[in-house]
Amino acid sequence: xxxxxxxxxxxxxxxxxxxxxxxxxxxxxxxxxxxxxxxxxxxxxxxxxxxxxxxxxxxxxxxxxxxxxxxxxxxxxxxxxxxxxxxxxxxxxxxxxxxxxxxxxxxxxxxxxxxxxxxxxxxxxxxxxxxxxxxxxxxxxxxxxxxxxxxxxxxxxxxxxxxxxxxxxxxxxxxxxxxxxxxxxxxxxxxxxxxxxxxxxxxxxxxxxxxxxxxxxxxxxxxxxxxxxxxxxxxxxxxxxxxx
Length: 244
Prior knowledge:
Elements: E1 2-6, H1 9-17, E2 22-25, H2 38-47, E3 51-55, H3 67-82, E4 87-90, H4 101-113, E5 117-120, H5 130-140, E6 144-147, H6 158-168, E7 173-177, H7 185-192, E8 196-199, E9 202-206, E10 227-231, H8 233-240
């Protein structure tokens, strides 16, 4: 299974026409992915047959949320599930970087009440004990774990991913993500034994209105200062053609 990380409805269409079967739908990918709009979800479900996992994340930075943020996240998750989401990707940590068991339990309960998939995202990559943490997630009913093996890129965390797959792969789905593309996807899957990868297949599109004479709204690197990131249909096709 190849899952494409999408930041908009247009991204979802590019993933779909590139041959993907499942996406993680977000907004603001430059912040690591935030909760998508209901409109982008409805359009994706109405015009494609993609399986859509929706991110629920109210802000950038970490994963230790206030009571106000948690309340918002639960309402957003419910709205997404009622509008066709096939699952929810989320992550709750305590200040000591351990899994927030109570909040995770509440979110899983909500997701399962709609008979959808509960996905714990790369908040996991900030934990201190990956083995104790994955066992907690399994016991709480998490269906799938997205991880880069506690490293910035999955290629660097492949040894831990392999160990997690060997020890827990029959209890939870392991989805490797971060820095995976058509040049390394197959090798990572063969080395780790996993059956799923998560890729952004990112390219850049120019918008000349990003910069004015005295102001700019740039967020990309210098060579893409007036660009925004988007899913490339061609890069999705390359990944899919590997036959993974």
